[in-house]
Structure formats: structure tokens, C-alpha cells
Amino acid sequence: KNGGQDWNVIRNGARESILDIEFVDNENGWAVGGNGTIVHSTDRGWNWEEQESGTDKGLVSLDFINKKEGWVVGGTGTILHTDDAGITWQAQASNTTATLVGVSFVDDEYGWAVGGGGTILHTTDGGTTWTAQTGYPENSSISAVAFVDRKRGWVTGWEGTMRTIDGGATWQQAIYDQWIIPGNDIKFANDTLGMITHQFSAFRTVDGGDSWEMIFFTGGRLLEYSYGCIIDQDEAWIVGELWYGSPIPICYHTTDGWKTWEQIPLDHRNPLKQIFFIDKNTGWMVGDNGTISHTTTGGLSQ
User: How does residue 6 score in pLDDT terms, banded at 50, 70 and 90?
Assistant: First the structure.
């Protein structure tokens, strides 16, 4: 405990960075990272066991639809699928060599994967076949993807944030004050409340992406990477990596409708790569050197 905050570092010192984490309930979760790393917890993240991914490619993003079935994406077009909680992982043919950095499934059939070169892949059969979709500039990488149902979804990257309302057949650019909205990460808590995080700022929509408002600004400090997590319309988190000649982990928290953001002190210096909460109190942060931090008190000392 430090500074009134309560985050427990429960995994540290590993050679591979952890880049994404997701829990499907309070007990069962997975995290992925460099060199084919997949780790699994069945006790709220207090203990982690490695799973055999069958690849040495960097794994960047994951999405589980229940405690048995999920997908992982990563380097050189890697897509992995499990339907037995990760006891076995099967490679799926992506037909691309682009690094895939985001994956979003809305059920056991419909999903999207995104990555370098404006790559958007779509499946309607659980990943047995993946087909390319177009609409994002091919000379720019996509950073993240978020779908809320089979029709409505978003992708974000350096060339802006784009929305589809027809399952990815067509895409439209999101606009804030006549400007495009580049992003490093995008999250939706439901079909109306969403957040985009970027190097200097973050944006919120409360109407499903029809309009966006700036709700966070770093004051000019460069966040090399930033990732968000929405609790509800009042509370949210942003974590990332501040660059001052060397990377410094940084964490912000708001509880007043996203109006003011408090910088949260951390007890390690490992840059943070993602944050995930399963409910208001129970959350995890992951980052370099295999770092996984956990809170069961909403990040606050009791």
C-alpha cells in the first residue's frame, strides 16, 4: 500500500512483457505477452500457470467470450483459438503476415482482428475462415478494435478512429471538433459508453460514437502508450508509459464523471501495457518484465 492506493504486484521479474489481460469472472483469467506467452489463473489472479501456445511469436491481445472459449492474436498474423480454457490452443489461418494487435468477438461466431498495414480481418464462423475488410488507410497501423454486436464496432490507430454500423462492410471516420481522433486504445463498456486513449489525451462518447468529447489531457507530457478501462459513467482508469529519456509507468483514475484525474503512485517502474476490471473493486494491470498487479479494493486502501 502506498499513497492511499492498494495495488499488489503478484507477478514480476519474468523475461517477457505481458501485453493484455482479461477475466471472464472473478476467478478465471488469462494474460498474454512476448515469445508466445499465455498464462492462466483460476484464483482471481493470485497464481498463474503457463499454457502451451505452440508459438514463439509475440502475443498482443486476447478476447474470451466465456471461461472455455477465447482467441489470441499476435506477430506475423498469428491467431490462436481455444475451446477448453486454454488446455489446448489451435492456430487459425489469418492469411496475413501483418502483426495483429487487437481482437474482438461478440459471440462464438462473429469476430474481428486488426493490426499493421490497416489490416482488418473478419470471421463469421469462429475463426475457421478469416476474410479481409477494407476501409482503414493501408499505410497506417490499427492499434485496437472494439465491437458491441455483430453490426456495430470501432477501430482506432494513428490515422484516426473509424466506426462501422454494418459489420465492417463500410467505415466512417469519428470526428472531434472537426479533427480526426487518433488512438492507441479503444474500449466500450456497453453500446453507448466508450473511451479512446492517445498520447496526449483521451475522449469519451456517451451516445455510441455519434459524438466525442475530450475528457483527459496530459498537460503536454507524452504518453508513449496509453490504455483505458471503463468502470461506469463516473469512474475510469488510464495506464501507460511516460517517456522521459526512459519509460516510466503511469496511472490515472477518475471517480467524478471523468472530470478530474488523479495520478496514482506505483511501487514499481515497469511500463504498463493494459488494465482490466471485472467489477468496480477487482482489477489487474500488466506490463513489462512480466508484471501483473492486482487490486480487490478498487485500487484504494481500506
Answer: confident
CB of 62 within 8 A of CB of 94?
Answer: no
| β-strand pairing of 272-277 with 283-287 | antiparallel
More confident call, 103 vs 250: 103
Contacts of 71 (CB under 8 A, 6+ apart): 62, 63, 64, 79, 80, 81, 92, 103, 105, 111, 113, 127
Mean pLDDT for the stretch of residues 123-134: 98
What is the mean pLDDT of the segment spanning 34-63? Answer: 96
Give me the pLDDT at residue 5, please: 65
Extract the C-alpha cell encoding 215.
Answer: 475528457
Q: List the one residue out of 222, 187, 229, 180 whose CA is nearest residue 201.
A: 222
Nearest to 93 by CA among 125, 140, 139: 125
The pTM (predicted TM-score) of the whole model is 0.95
Cβ neighbours around 43 below 10 Å, total: 11
Specify whether the CB–CB gap between 33 and 59 falls below 8 A. Answer: yes
Cα–Cα nearest to 16, from 39, 1, 40, 33: 33
Question: Beta strands 79-82 and 90-92: pairing type?
Answer: antiparallel
Q: What are the CA-CA distances from residue 258 to residues 4, 103, 208, 263 (Å)?
A: 20, 26, 17, 13
Could you read off the pLDDT of 8-35 as tens digits, one per residue? 888 776 779 999 999 999 999 999 999 9
Going by C-alpha positions, the residue among 229, 251, 268 that lies closest to residue 20 is 229
For the record, the C-alpha cell of 145 comes out as: 478494435
